[in-house]
Each structure stands twice: as C-alpha cells, then as structure tokens.
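Why should sequence recovery work at all? Because a backbone constrains its sequence more than one might expect. Tight turns favour small or flexible residues, buried strands favour hydrophobic ones, and helices have their own preferences. The token representation captures these environments compactly. In the example below, the structure is given first.
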C-alpha cells in the first residue's frame, strides 16, 4: 500500500546477503515508483536508480546538473514503494568529501540500501562516452572514506565506481579498484569494461562484490547473466532500459495519434485500466476504506 512492508534496515541486510550469495543478482533501473511493482512481480532481486535517468527525466543531460536534494527525494519515492533493496547512483557525491558525507546520510534517511560514488570530475559525463576526466587517486580515496565514515547504518552499502578504464586502461582500473577497497569500499563498479576478460581481471584484483553495467548502446556488449556470473560478477544493472522502452512507446503512440487522429490502433499495446489498478493496489486501500474501491473495473478497453 502506501509504503514498503520492509524497513530500510532490513532491506540493507538482505542486499548484503544477496551480494555474498551463490548467484549473480539482477537490478533493473526504475525511474518511477510504480515501475518497482513490475520489477518485483517479475522476480528481480532489487531496483537500481540511475543518475543519468534521473537527470534525463528532468530533461537534462547526464553532466552533473541534478542536486542532492532532487536525487534523494526521487530515490526515496522509489524506495518507499517496494520491499526490494534499492541502490542509487550518487554521481561524484555532489561536491567535496564533506558533501559526500552529507549525501550518504541523506540517502540513508531516504531509505536506500546503498549508493555508488564515482571518480570523475565535475562536470561529469555518461560513463560510456569518450573524453571523460577522472580525479587523482587521492581525491577518489577521500570520497570513499568520507562516504564510509558518514554512514550510521553499517549495512548501508558504499560502492566505489571507477571510470579509469576508459581513460588510462585496464591495469590502471584494477589498481584503482584495489585502492578504493583499501579505503573502505564495500563493492566495486568498474565502468565501461570492454569484454568478459576485463570483468575477469577485475574479479581477480579485488575480494569484494563487483557490478556489471549492461546499458544499451554502451562500450560493453550486452552479456547474459550466465556469462557474467561465469567470470565472477556479483551484480548486474540495466540502468536506462525501462526509461528507453517507455519513451519509445510514448513516441510511437504520439505518432499514431498524429497520423490517425486517434490512439485506437495503439490501445492493444497499452497497459489496461484493470492492470494499472492492480499495480497501484486499489484493493489494498479498500481494506482501510470500503468507499475507495466500490466499482467495476473495465477490462482491456477501459
């Protein structure tokens, strides 16, 4: 109903248990709270909240224009609606180490299970674009240390993302990952790995969970979970998949309306009214007030 039935603290414990379990876990990216219901129904392990998606949803490119308050508020809206653990992209931490510390505490307050902080400069850019700039190792380490020291719940997971692979190569990326783990990172997000052998090299370099970013149109091939699990990846995200799918569907139905003067031809592809009411749990609210849901729900064409 209104909120998850699981506390943020319990979600954090569950998330950590997942990452040390025997199989890879899958976190599709959500950009709306209601989409978490679909993710849960389809049996996925958790929800990923992409900084790029949150920026794009506001009409911005992924260059660090969003503010901590915007990200924490939207991530909290998403996390509150699902029993699944949610992790959020905290970009560069929204400033200097003290800002990183505040970021972690705001995200804890918002009910997230964890976040990742990256080693790019501001203004940053999408990790699968060329021309990125990364900070020096000392700065990257300070960000991770600040995040780890600031958390109040020891189970809030601090993941370090490194973009060094696209700038200085794989060896530099594995070296940096080791240093970030030494600084206290609970997990490593090696961005823009070129192939499975590079994930395998990262697995050999660190003894914490590692994440694979399976974003469309990026530097990495869209590997299957079996392929990633075979080289030791613990977690895979699909950050922009749902937003791209939703916007593609929106564009197609708008084209239909423009061409036909009606959306009728597109209706069979839409979520029905009955299914929408199911996702927002009209029946659950009726348990509190029988006047809320006392009508017949139209079916396919409702």
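From this structural description, the recovered sequence reads:
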């Amino acid at each position: 109903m209104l909120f998850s039935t699981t506390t943020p603290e319990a979600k954090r414990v569950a998330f950590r248990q997942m990452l040390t379990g025997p199989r890879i876990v899958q976190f599709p990216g959500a950009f709306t709270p209601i989409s978490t219901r679909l993710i849960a129904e389809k049996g996925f392990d958790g929800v990923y909240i992409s900084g790029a998606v949150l920026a794009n949803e506001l009409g911005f490119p992924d260059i660090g224009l969003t503010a901590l308050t915007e990200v924490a508020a939207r991530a909290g809206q998403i996390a509150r609606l699902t029993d699944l653990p949610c992790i959020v992209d905290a970009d560069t931490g929204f400033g200097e180490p003290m800002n990183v510390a505040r970021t972690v505490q705001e995200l804890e307050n918002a009910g997230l299970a964890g976040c990742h902080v990256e080693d790019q400069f501001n203004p940053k850019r999408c990790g699968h674009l060329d021309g990125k700039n990364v900070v020096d190792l000392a700065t990257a380490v300070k960000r991770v240390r600040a995040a780890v020291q600031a958390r109040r719940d020891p189970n809030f997971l601090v993941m370090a993302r490194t973009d060094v692979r696209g700038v200085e190569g794989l060896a530099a990326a594995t070296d940096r990952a080791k240093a970030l783990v030494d600084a206290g990172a609970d997990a490593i997000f090696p961005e823009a790995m070129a192939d499975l052998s590079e994930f395998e090299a990262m697995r050999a370099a660190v003894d914490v969970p590692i994440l694979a970013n399976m974003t469309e149109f990026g530097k990495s091939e869209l590997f299957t979970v079996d392929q990633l699990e075979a080289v030791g990846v613990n977690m895979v995200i699909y950050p922009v998949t749902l937003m791209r799918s939703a916007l593609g569907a929106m564009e197609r139905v708008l084209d239909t309306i423009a061409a036909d003067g009606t959306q009728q031809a597109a209706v069979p592809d839409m979520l029905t009214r009955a299914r929408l009411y199911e996702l927002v749990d009209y029946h659950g609210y009726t348990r509190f007030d029988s006047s809320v849901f006392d009508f017949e729900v139209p079916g396919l064409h409702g």
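A few observations help interpret the result. The longest strand covers residues 157-162.
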